[in-house]
Amino acid sequence: MKHTELLQALIDNLGYQSYLEIGIEDGKNFNALTLGGGAIKVGIDPAKKSRRVATHPMTSDAYFDKYPSQTFDLVFIDGLHEADQVLRDVNHALTVLNDGGTIVCHDLNPCSYQRQVVPRAKGSGAWLGDCWKAWVALRRRANLSMFVVDTDYGCGIIRRRHPRSSIGPFPLPLTSAPLHPDFKGLQAHREEWLNLVPLATFQGWLTSLSKKTPHSSPAPAKEPVSLVEETPKKSNPLTSKDVVESAAKLQPRVPQTRKTNKNRGK
Question: What is the pTM of this model?
Fold first, then answer.
């Protein structure tokens, strides 16, 4: 199953009516997805080649600064494939996610060191970047339910954790991974760190979830909280080490972040 099919399955089964895509590149995935009449679709990408297809040709930082009140049922994150940026994108997405909504992150399951090293190595082939490091950091949070579907380079599902709900392959927050995970560790603990599940598990989870009444509630009114310690917004960008270390120290809260250019290179 390709990520477009996975996203469409979420839309169809859960009755989603609003969609945000961060990093639309050529618009192939964005344009292929169909929502019901009156639905909202927003595509963000500052790249020059994306200007003709993006509804908002800007960085996600600029978008969220300008449109902080627009909420979404489904958010697809496929922008700049670096851990710092993925964390910022997820955090921003959580602040605009409707109740019952889902965030999907792409490219979380790299099969080789070369495909995940940052900066991108020459001849690396399909470059996934170190998005997986952001995922491992986020899995430490008790307020999120997360798993990665073992399909199309790894498609990560994120939903707000509801204590009374038992639907889904959602274990307790991850505590066994080191604060600064490396690829060798990922190779040894891939299934545990990613909460990697087969496609059939995703399909079963979605079937169970779709039996519930589709949601339409707006995002809960919560003050956005940064995943990291307070830092200047426009200078001294965080490193993956800083962000992962900060993530481990935080109490479970809903955070906020930012996003820049996309460079997947597939």
Answer: 0.79
